[in-house]
Amino acid sequence: MNMDYVAKLEAATGLKFDPAKLPRHIAIVMDGNGRWAKQRGQKRSSGHRAGVEALEDVVIACRNLGVGYLTVYAFSTENWSRPAAEVSTLMSLLSEFAASKLKRLRDNQVEVRVLGDFAGLPVLQRAALNRLMSATANVRTPDEGLVLNLALNYGGRSEILAGLKRAAAELSPRELQEMTEERFGGFLATAGQPDPDLLIRTSGELRLSNFLLWQLAYAEFYFTEILWPDFDAVELFRAICAYQQRNRRFGALLSE
Length: 256
What we know:
Elements: H1 3-13, E1 25-29, H2 33-39, H3 44-65, E2 69-76, H4 84-100, H5 102-107, E3 110-115, H6 123-136, E4 146-154, H7 156-170, H8 173-177, H9 181-185, E5 198-201, E6 220-223, H10 233-243
Parallel strand pairs: 1-2, 1-5, 2-4, 3-4, 5-6
Helix pairs in contact: 1-10, 2-3, 3-4, 4-6
């Protein structure tokens, strides 16, 4: 955790940060690129490009604040139904992100992973992502670094179904009967990672949109009217400070 960085954000927001209550894992639904572009009389592609820059800013902010895991909803299984030109733009931006941000991600000890149907992505994007994942695979240490999960061609229901099929293929009938929630989590795309503590959704929408349906069972939700391209380190800091004011009970009662 970069305490000088924290101090600057505290000064900018007037908020007090508690390092002891830092969320280990943050999940974000990055929403509002199209509306951001429309407000400025620009093409939707401009909004998506601005959204990529916002993502870079938030990734580096998470790294400086000491967050260990960040999962962002970059492209859902339902997004293929968007106009072909927009899908093409999103895929091109994905390749650009993988190539142009590689060095900065490595320098900041950010390990990139992909959640979702990787094989269903176009071949050029798979190649670019494979290079990015390979180049960042060993940059973290036990005490330093961030895992960045890119949810691409991803759907929460599909992930759970795929996990169920893997469990059925690998386990005996007896083991399936004795399945626990903890063990089933090992068959999901986020196996080995803590569940998100905090979900952030931008642009004022109030739904999950088929995102991390299993993992978000006890996450704290933070919704903001800010459109994704305008969401920056300061807004992330506000979200984390709001999270730190919550009393997390996980279904139990707090002792009095």
